[in-house]
Every structure is written in C-alpha cells, then in structure tokens.
Amino acid sequence: MAGWRPALAAAAGALLLAGCTSGSPDGEAEGKGKPKGSPDASASPSSATAVSEPYTLAEERAPRTRAEALAFVRELDVRPDYFGVGYRKREPFESDPSEWAVLQDDCQWRREPLPKTVLASLTRAFELPEKGGKGPVYVSLTVTVHQDTMAARRDMAGALESALSCPQQRLNATDVVRGLYSRVDAFTDERNAISEDDLAESGEWIVDGESRAHPFDWYKFRLGPVTVAATARHGAGRTEEEDSTVTVDMVEGLGFVAAGIDRRGDATEPAETSTGTSAGTPGETEGAER
C-alpha cells in the first residue's frame, strides 16, 4: 500500500487556507469557514488562524426533490481556474446527473441509476493540457445531493471502506488506481478543516500498457446532506514539488465549491417537503467521483 504522500500533507494546509479565504479565486464572497481576522495573502498554512466553523448546508435549506437537486447541482459554479492556472474543460464535460458511480464487488467502478437516497449527482471534468514535457493532469469534481444528512454520512462511511476492501480499483476501460491509503475526519474543535466530514485518499494510477504509474489524489467533503468529491490524476514529468502543487490546487478548488454551497444555503429559503423527479442529460464523464 502506498504511503501518505508529502503532497497530501501539504494539502492539509490547503484545507485550512481554503477556510481562511473567500469563496472564489476572485474573492467574490466570504463563507462561514472564514475565521475572524483572516490572514493576509502571504500567510502560510502554519501561520493561518483556525477555522471557526465548517462550511455546511442545513437540511431545511437543501433541495428536497430530484428536480430541485438537479437545478442545484447545475447552477453551482465550478470553474476551471478553481484548480489552478491553465486548466480547461474536458470533453465530455458533464455526467448524467441521474446516475452515479458505484464500486462493484470486482473493484471496478460502474455508473448506475441513482438509489432512492440520492437526489442528483453531477460530475464535471477538467484538464491541464500537456506542456513543456509534462503530461496532462485530469481533475474531476462531483457534487451529490443526498436525501438527508444521514444518507450523506453513510456515503462517506462507504467511501472509506472502499479503499480498505479494494486497494486496487479500475476506474474505466484503461485506467487503474492502486496502493490506496485513506484517512477520514469529522470536524472538531481540535482540527482545522472546512467541512463537517472529509475523506482523503492517495495512491497511484496507471494506464493499461504503460509501465510507469503516477500520483492519484481523491478528496471528499460532506456539507450537511451534500457531498463534494474531487480527484486528480497527475501527468508524467513532474517533480515531487510540482505534484504537491497539483494536489494543493485541487483541494483549494474543492474548497471554493464548498464555499459556494455554503453561500447557497445562506441565501435560500427553507425548502418545503415535497416529491418530484427529474430527467438527466446523457453523458459519460469517465471515472465519475474517481
């Protein structure tokens, strides 16, 4: 099993900093994760102040029907530059929000219709193109609206178990991740984080027919009944420091999306209980959460 990479240790600092900064790269708005007396732009992870409270979305303000959940995930802003300079949308850009990825008993991810406990799940795909002898980086971000907070907690628990039962997993027809190492935490007064629960995994990914593997990162946050997950598959030709930057930038992008969800909750009137369905837009974003 792969060890806990230095890049993920650095990303722990990004978790803290994301909570100390505004909810977008442009500083459009501040989220609850911002502590009192935020640090200046030059602050390092070790010098930033603790997060006062995590980003969240109260159940009474969360989508309650599939139609509301579909509108929620589609309207949520997720920009390429959230993950660093030079990123762009990848085709296909969006998945079918009426499906999600499920890890099967054979340790292969496959897309399936949403269960009753999930209202919508949308994956968006981005890439940092190959340049200067450095291979492309593939980033995906998935927002999933669960029926309630308990269902979201169960999803987080299941995600942690997946690395234990399947340390090697097939993402799609060509890509495999292996040597997965997991860590999950809940928000406490002793911990600097920006969500109520978070899961981090590291490992390496390899494409069939290639001899060399490359770093793989996966982070997942829970904000009330909503989970947000992001993955990064690093391209070849990067130093350890450059790989660390890829990981930190990905986690910061995840923090921007979490801040957006938190703001949406603050701006939304409490939802009334109702029922409904939605129709998804076909798509085949590879890897889904992975």
Features:
24% helix; globular; 290 residues; 10 strands; alpha+beta; two-stranded antiparallel sheet; 4 helices; Protein Transport Mog1p, Chain A; eight-stranded antiparallel beta sheet
What does this 3D model show about the protein?
α1 packs parallel to α4. The protein is globular, with a radius of gyration of 18 Å. The protein has one domain: 3-Layer(aba) Sandwich (Protein Transport Mog1p, Chain A), CATH 3.40.1000. The strands form 2 sheets. An 8-stranded antiparallel β-sheet has the order 1-4-5-10-9-8-7-6, sandwiched between helices. Strands 2-3 form a two-stranded antiparallel sheet. The chain has 4 helices and 10 strands. It is α+β, with helices and mostly antiparallel strands and 290 residues long. The C terminus is likely disordered. The chain is 24% helix and 28% strand.
Distance between the termini: 18 Å
The number of helical elements comes to 4
Rounded Rg: 18 Å
What number is the mean pLDDT?
A: 80
Q: What CATH architecture label applies?
A: 3-Layer(aba) Sandwich
Order of helices and strands: HHEEEEEHEEEEEH
Q: How many beta-strand runs?
A: 10
Strand content: 25-35%
CATH topology: Protein Transport Mog1p, Chain A
In short:
This protein has 290 residues and is an alpha+beta fold.
